[in-house]
Amino acid sequence: MILQRLLILIAIFNLPACSMLGNLQPQPEIKSVEVVTIEKPAPVYHPVLPPEVSFLPVQWRVLTPDVMEEYVTDLKAGEAPTNVYYGLTVKSYENLSSNMSDVKRYLRQILNIVDYYQDLTKNEEKEDGSNNEHSGSSD
Predict the structure, then answer these.
(1) Is 122 in contact with 46 (CB distance < 8 Å)?
(2) Is residue 75 within 8 Å of 82, Cβ to Cβ?
(3) pLDDT tens across 25-66, in order?
């Protein structure tokens, strides 16, 4: 029991001695590191614009009582094609026209916004390119 305690004490006193021997070796020179942060914006993706809207032709035919009477007589005689007609009241036609003009306005505004951001990023890319050229020529 005393022998075990003695061995433990000897081991405890000799452990720091091992770490002292390590200090005799020369330490490598520590060089400082300079950290440089470069801000570089992420590239901007410019998606290809979708093709322009192309409308199919629409044939408008105003059905007055005279035109309708002529159509019915031709239909009974078998000389007129069987067509289905959709009717709009004057107010409904005005609403349709107003809705279409709103769609046009909205598309125009969206395209202006897209053009603005495309021009903005193109100008920034040009400025970055000219700054890089000046900084590259000084080396």
Answers:
(1) no
(2) yes
(3) 677 888 899 999 988 878 777 788 888 878 888 888 888 889
Q: Provide the whole-model pTM.
A: 0.48
Write the pLDDT tens digit of every residue in 56-69: 888 888 888 898 89
Q: Is the dihedral of CA 76, 77, 83, 86 positive or negative?
A: negative
Calculate the CA dihedral of residues 71, 77, 81, 83 and round it to 10 degrees: 50
CA distance 66 to 72: 10
Q: What is the DSSP letter of 66?
A: H
Structure tokens at 86: 């959709």
**Measuring CA to CA, how many Å separate 53 from each of 13, 39, 50, 114?**
89, 41, 9, 17
Sequence-separated contacts (24+) of 32-41 with Cβ below 8 Å: 41/124
Phi-psi region at 31: left, alpha or beta (left = phi > 0; alpha = psi -120 to 50): beta
Q: How far is CA 101 from the centre of its chain?
A: 28
Sign of the Cα pseudo-torsion (84, 90, 94, 97, in order)? positive
Could you tell me how far CA 7 lies from the centroid of its own chain? 73
DSSP tag of 30: P
